[in-house]
Design goal:
Elements (H helix, E strand, L loop, with lengths): L1 H21 L5 H36 L4
Length: about 70
């Protein structure tokens, strides 16, 4: 789980780094639209990671159930 999260963060940082170079040719409107799209994508990723974490936590509780 931790490696998946680190991979996602690393990819996001790399994406932001590349996007920084692309900013130079954008109009402010294009930049705002793209940043909003990126924010939504990041929110979706965060929700997926949280859902995965909750799912794995629930699974491990079932695996190690103490009566």
């Amino acid at each position: 789980m931790k490696t998946l999260f680190e991979w996602a963060v690393g990819l996001f940082v790399l994406f932001c780094f590349i996007a920084g170079f692309l900013d130079l040719g954008e109009t402010p409107r294009q930049k705002r639209v793209r940043e909003q799209a990126e924010w939504y994508a990041a929110e979706e990723d965060r929700r997926n990671i949280e859902a995965d974490a909750a799912y794995y936590a629930e699974q491990s509780q079932h695996d190690h159930h103490h009566a």
